[in-house]
Amino acid sequence: MSAQFFCPTCKKEVERLQACGAVQYFCNHCNSLVSKSKVITSPTQNSEQESS
Ligand SMILES: [Zn+2]
C-alpha cells in the first residue's frame, strides 16, 4: 500500500525519494524538495491547523 503525497505549496503530487532509510519528497512543479513533515496527504488538505 502506497499513500499519495502532495506538495503543500502547489498541491501537485510529489515524487518519493528514499535514501539510506530517510524518505524525502520532491515536487516537480516547484522543483524543490519537500520534507516528510511538510507533505500533505490530500491535495485539498489545508496546511493550517483547524481548531474549531
Ligand atoms: Zn510544489
Can you describe this structure?
By secondary structure, the protein is mostly beta strands. The chain has one domain. Helices cover 0% and strands 27% of the residues. Strands 1-2-3 form a 3-stranded antiparallel beta sheet, with no helix packed on it. Zinc ion binds next to loops.
Our Rg estimate from Cα atoms comes to 11 Å
- Provide the helix percentage: under 10%
Give me the secondary-structure category.
Answer: mainly beta
Query: In this structure, how is the largest beta sheet organized?
Result: 3 strands, antiparallel
In terms of DSSP E residues, the strand content is: 25-35%
Bound molecules: zinc ion
Which runs of at least 5 residues are low in confidence (pLDDT < 50)? none
Order of helices and strands: EEE
How many distinct beta strands? 3
Shape: globular
N-to-C span: 32 Å
Q: Round the mean pLDDT to the nearest integer and report it.
A: 86
> How many domains, as an integer?
1
Number of helices: 0
Please give the order of strands in the largest beta sheet.
1-2-3
Descriptors:
0% helix; 3 strands; binds zinc ion; mainly beta; single chain; 52 residues
Quick structural summary:
With 52 residues, the chain is mainly beta. It has strands at 15-19, 22-27, 32-34. A three-stranded antiparallel β-sheet has the order 1-2-3, with no helix packed on it.
